[in-house]
Amino acid sequence: MKISIIGIALITSLFSFSAYSAPKEELKFCAENDVQKKISISSNRLSFKNQGGLANGGVCWWHSRFTRNANYVAVFSPEKAKPHNKTMNRPKKFAGKTPMKRVPAPGSVKYILKQIKYGKVVEIPGYKNLREFSKANRKEIQKLLGDWQIEDGFIKQSWVVGLMGKSKTTAAKFEKSMDKTFKRVSKGQAVYQKLQIKGVVAHAWIVTGMEKTRDGYNISVIDSNYSSTRIWRYKKGDTHFNYPGWGKFVPYTERTREEKKTKKAKEKFCMKVALGNGFAVLTGEKDSRDVNADSINDSALVTKDFSGKKSKKSSKKTGARKK
Predict the structure, then answer these.
(1) Helices and strands, counts by H and E, the chain
(2) At what angle do helices 256-275 and 60-73 cross, to 10 degrees?
(3) In DSSP terms, which residues pair with 76 in a beta bridge?
(4) N or C: which end of the chain has fewer CB within 10 A?
(5) 151 phi/psi in degrees, rounded to 5
(6) pLDDT tens digits for range 226-268
(7) With bands split at pLDDT 50, 70 and 90, how would you rate the model's confidence at 69?
(8) Could you tell me the residue ranges of all domains in the chain?
(9) Does residue 162 sit in helix, strand or coil?
(10) Global pTM?
(11) Got the DSSP string for 88-153?
(12) At what angle do helices 24-31 and 256-275 cross, to 10 degrees?
């Protein structure tokens, strides 16, 4: 917490003394430090509710994670041209031969979605907010969430986590859990929680606020099954909550490191904005906004994958010698 406060103070000071005039959209993005308040505004959330997924069972985990990530890393520039749908070639990572595969080009809708998924700061041109962007690109976002579900569920076996935990606990344990959540919320975190429901693998929501009452808490949550903020009331002595149509459940806090990662990505970006040129300095390369979509062709290569790791270029040798 101390590091974040010092970082914000330093960024503010740098903006005050720097002669660099950052684009207004970047300044606005860096000034929005209250993620709880930001997510609570409906225009900063997806335009559609939880739906689709395997056996049409929904994609609530990923709907919630995508929404939180976007509120940390998406920079909206409504005055610019909307994203394109160009792709470009990139070498596949295989031993021996290096066949090419098509990947989303910088500035494309799919590229933007991947950046948000992995918690990397990215510009979204042509739209004012997440609701506008998701309304125009609902099909692409729904596909990303579905693919993400498959990736986590089958490749990473995250569905097992959804089977862990109880739908009812003791009053003492539930009170302790609520107190811990309150501490996290008090620190400004948008707390992602899995809801362990009997007979259901698990649901998810984001806690954006908690208010102490005489005998417990009023809890503000963003639930992907609803279009508006929901208020849940906890009273000391409770052992569970009751979800409409599903029954008893207990929430469990998860994905805390994911939030730290996206928050750090934003802080790093805003430091770069304060020091010089936001997007260009962040990547260490030419600003992705300056890529001319019309000039992208089959011979174009991407030298960084979505995880930020550099790919080896097979066309030229640097000739550098080991010292």
Answers:
(1) 11, 10
(2) 20
(3) 124
(4) C
(5) -60, -50
(6) 999 999 999 999 999 999 999 999 999 999 999 999 999 999 9
(7) very high
(8) 2-158+271-278, 161-257
(9) helix
(10) 0.79
(11) EEEE---SS---EEEEEPTTBHHHHHHHHHTT--EEEET-SSHHHHHHHTHHHHHHHHHHHHHIII
(12) 140
- For the stretch 224-233, pLDDT in tens is 999 999 999 9
Joined together, the tokens standing for residue 275 give 């020091």
Question: Which distant-in-sequence residues (6+ apart) come within 8 Å of 287 by Cβ?
Answer: 277, 279, 280
Closest to 117 (Cα-Cα) out of 69, 48, 71: 69
Integer Cα distance of 36 and 172 in angstroms = 28
Phi then psi for 109, rounded to 5 degrees? Answer: -60, -45
Which are the contacts of 187, defined by CB distance < 8 A and separation ≥ 6?
Answer: 1
Q: Residue 207: name the closest of 57, 67, 33, 49 by CA.
A: 67
Q: Dihedral sign, CA of 233, 234, 236, 238?
A: positive
